[in-house]
Amino acid sequence: MFDQAMARIAGRFKRVEPRATARAFVLALLSGVEQKNCWRLAEQAGHARPGPMQRLLRSTRWDADAVRDDIRAYVLEHLGAEDGVLIVDETGFLKKGTTSAGVQRQYTGTAGRVENTQVGVFLAYASSRGRALIDRRLYLPDASWCQDTERRIRAGVPDQVEFATKPTLAGQMITAALDGGIDVSWVTGDEAYGQDPGLRALLESRGIGYVLAVACSTRVQINHGRTTARADAVADRLPASAWHRQSAGAGAKGPRYYDWAWIETGTDGHRHLLIRRNPHSGELAYYLCCSPRRVPLSELVKVAGTRWCFQAAKGQVGLDHYQVRHWTAWHRHITLALLALAFLAFLVFLAVLAADATPARTADPNRPARSTYPIDLTVPEIRHLLGALLIPANTSPRRLLHWSNWRRHHQATARRSHYQRRLAAPSTG
C-alpha cells in the first residue's frame, strides 16, 4: 500500500534518483526518528550524507503543488464520504532567526502569545472514514516581507506571490479543492476565518454551507432581520428552554457534551447564530451558520465539532521539524509530510474496517471484570508498527559513528562561520 501511495506522485519526478529519494524521505517521516530534519532522515534512510534530501527540498526539479493535487485525489479516493467537511486552520512554526520565508514576530496559537514564527494556513478534509490535511499555504506578512524585495529574493519568494490575508489563503485552498473534485456540503473554521465576510461570501457563492466561529462582539440580525444585536447579548436573553445538550463528537475521553442554542438570523431559515456553552465552566462560543437547505440543530453541532489537531501532524510525521529557510523548501517538506499523514489516515481507516468486521466477542464470566479487549489501532501505534516492519534499521556501530562524526564536523564549520560573522559586525554596545 505504501508503494501504491508513492506511485501516485512518481510521475512528478523526471529522474529515478529524486524519485527514490522522495520515497526514502516519506518513509523516514513515518519512522520513529525523533527529529525529522534532513540530517536525521538521511541517517534513517541509510544515506551517507544529507545532500540528496537537501537537494530534494531545495533544487531538484519537481512541482510541489502538483504533488499536493495528487495527495488531495488520494485522500478523496480513500477517505471520501457523503458527510465530508473541509476545515480551515493555521499553526505556527517557531523560529530563532529572521531569514526564513515569512518569519516575523506575530501571534501564534502554538505558543499562545506573540513569538518569532512562521504561520502556515492549512485545509483539512474530515469524514466518517478519517481525516487528513490536503493543502497548505505559507502566510507572507505585508510590510516586513511583501514590500521588501531584497528579503524576498534571499528567501526565494516567487515574484507572483502577493500579500494575502489568512482568510484569503483559506478561500484559495477551498476553491482549489472544490475545483479539484472535493464534494462537501460544509466548511468550518475558527474565529480568524469566521470574522471575514469575504470568505463567507465565497462559500455562499459556491453553495457551500458553513459553521464558522466568531467573536462575542459580532452583531447579528434578530427579529426576522428587523434589529441587530451583539452575539453575547443574544445569548444573555435566552431562556433555559433554548439550550439543548448534545455531543459534538467523540473525544479522547468520550463524547464531548455541550449545551447548544441556535437563533435564526435571517428570514429564510438558512442562517443561524449557534451558541455553545460548556456545562462545567459556562464558557460560551459563537458560530455564524449558513446552510443551502434547512437543517436540524444536530447537523450544525456535528459540523461545529469537526476539528483538526496539529499535534498529531507535528508529532507523528515531523510537520514542524524542518530546518529550511527557502520558500520552495518549506512547501516541499510540508507537502511530503501531508502525503505521510494521508497514508497513515488510510491505514487507520482500514484498521477500523477490520475491527468492525471482527465477529462480536462475548464476555467470558470466568475472566476478571477489568479485563478488556484492546482499543482500535491508533495513528501512533500504526506508525510504530510501520517503523518496526517496513523501515530497515541502519544502526550498525560504524554507521552511527560515521553520522556522529559528520554532524560534529558540520557543526564546527557552522560555529566558525557564526563567530566570524559576529566578530566582523560593528559593535553596538
UniProtKB/TrEMBL annotation:
Residues forming the Transposase IS701-like DDE domain are 12-226
Q: Write down the Pfam families for this protein, in alphabetical order.
A: DDE_5 (PF13546)
Recorded coiled-coil stretches: none
- Can you tell me where the transmembrane regions are? 334-355
| Protein keywords | Membrane, Transmembrane, Transmembrane helix
Q: What is this protein called?
A: IS701 family transposase
Q: Which organism is it from?
A: Kitasatospora terrestris
